[in-house]
Amino acid sequence: MHRFNRKSTPIMTTRTHQPRHYTQLDRLLINADQALRTLFGRPQTTERPNPASDHDESELREDQRRHIARLMRINHTGEVCAQALYQGQALTAKLPETRDRLERSAEEENDHLAWCAERLEELGDRKSLLNPVWYAGSFAMGAAAGLAGDKWSLGFVVETERQVENHLNGHLEQIPAQDEKSRSILEQMKTDEVRHAQVAKAAGGTDLPGPIRQAMKLTSRIMTRTVYWV
Questions:
Q1: 131: helix, coil or strand?
Q2: Looking at residue 108, what is its pLDDT?
Q3: 161 is annotated as contributing to ligand binding
Q4: How many CA atoms lie within 13 A of 106 on its CB side?
Q5: Is 118 annotated as a binding residue?
Q6: Which of 66-70, 103-107, 131-135 has the lowest mean pLDDT?
Q7: What is the mean pLDDT of residues 16-26?
Q8: Reduced to 3 states, what is the DSSP secondary structure of residue 207?
Q9: How far apart are CA 201 and CA 125, in angstroms?
Q10: 128 near 76, Cβ under 8 Å?
Q11: 109 is in an annotated binding site
């Protein structure tokens, strides 16, 4: 039987943790898990609180509630696409530093995904039925951008976030002032998207050619108009 002296000082040991190096197979499995969480589960969020939690539910007419819910469904699908883009880009990124930046931004996008999902539930509406299709297409686009090179991949992030910022501004104009819950979520999302674009630009992101920017806008327009209804 061991006896301990009350005056004795416990021996503390320290461990040094080496960063784990993932193989390509590891990353594929991680991406598969992330896809399932994004589409069918609850995303792993940071410790940031939902901005809407500071506001009370407002009185909305039925037509207002329905329209806001559809806008939030578009934003939710946009965050599904953002997850897919970042995961695809991180998978094919050439430099570890670029991969780390993309994965850190993806963590904040996970917050957006969770906040939009919660708001949709509060508004009594559903997620888009086409989310798996948009996820697959966005992942392929992100992987292709990564294969083109880190400067183009980061440039893709810059352009995506700029377009998302404009898109959020348009939604904020449509959501009534009394719906502070929805507006607070979109405002925080906008702040984050602006920062993601600035980080990607500072890291060496290059401006995309005009035809690619226009193709991205067209794809976004198709997505938003489809998801509003489906």
A1: helix
A2: 81
A3: yes
A4: 25
A5: no
A6: 103-107
A7: 60
A8: coil
A9: 36
A10: yes
A11: yes
Q: Which of 150, 94, 138 is nearest to 113 (CA)?
A: 138
Can you read off the two tokens belonging to residue 7?
């005056």
Q: How far apart are CA 20 and CA 33, in angstroms?
A: 18
Among 148, 106, 137, 128, residue whose Cα is nearest residue 219: 137
pTM: 0.84
Taken in order of first residue, the domains within the chain and their CATH numbers are 60-227 (1.20.1260.10)
**Residue with more model confidence, 184 or 47:** 184
pLDDT at 21 (0 to 100) = 67
**Residue 179 corresponds to which amino acid?**
D
* Cα gap 78→146, rounded to integer Å: 20
Instruction: Specify whether the CB–CB gap between 114 and 42 falls below 8 A.
Output: yes
Q: Alpha helix locations (H) across the chain?
A: 24-40, 62-92, 96-122, 131-148, 150-174, 180-202, 210-227
Distance CA 213, CA 220 (A): 11
Which amino acid is located at 70 in the chain?
A: R
Tell me: is residue 196 an annotated ligand-binding position. Answer: yes
| Packed helices 62-92 and 150-174: angle between N→C axes, nearest 10 degrees | 170
Task: Please tell me whether residue 221 adopts helix, strand or coil conformation.
Answer: helix
